[in-house]
Amino acid sequence: MMAFMGCSNLESVDAPSLTMIAGLAFQSCSTLTHLSVASDCNILTSALTGSGLSSVTFGGIEMYPDSHSDYYPKDSVLNTTSSVAYNSLYDALLNANNGDTIQLQKDFTSKFNSNVNKENITLDMNGHTLSFSPSYGLNINDGSLTIIGAGSIIIAESEGIAVTGGDLHLNDVSIIYDPEVPNQGDCVILVTGSSPDSDVASSVTV
Predict the structure, then answer these.
(1) What is the bridge-based pairing of β-strands 144-148 and 167-170?
(2) Alpha-carbon span 89 to 166, nearest angstrom
(3) β-bridge mates for residue 177, sequence order
(4) What is the pLDDT of residues 5-36, one digit of tens each?
(5) Dist CA 204 CA 187 (whole Å)
(6) Backbone torsions φ then ψ of 76, nearest 5 degrees
(7) Cα(50)–Cα(92) distance, rounded to whole angstroms?
(8) How far apart are CA 57 and CA 38, in angstroms?
């Protein structure tokens, strides 16, 4: 763990072997504009509070925080309906309105569940690959999602896409297991019918 609170002249930190940085680690370090760590370092986004940092370089790749305290390549996702860019799919879907189209701009790994609870949302893969970390995936809850765009979704565990009281439409997209993760289960899409709070039946169209 590392903390530099109050280091008013600190400009750069290179810590390739660091595995954890806690919240408020750089409080009052307003001159700090560069932080480089290992690719698997765990950094709370609150660690950036009070610093001059807007991003962190993980294993040579510059990443930006989202609202769920995870880091992603900058502007990975674009809401083409509103022309607003987001760093994560989680944020893009959280802020989407009925009928919006969400388009991937880069390949990236989503590190938290992305929920669809709006109607007629389109996820345009735009030829990119969307991977999910273990235990996470897409949840369609009382909404409808159409996935298009000749891309791939890679999931690390069974039931990577859960449809509960909503609709899922797939068109020219591949959904596959991560070949490097063992014991994944026996289904990539789980359909469980209506949710307890909805009378809308689930459906999947391929």
Answers:
(1) parallel
(2) 19
(3) 155
(4) 667 788 898 988 878 887 778 888 889 899 99
(5) 14
(6) -70, -25
(7) 26
(8) 8
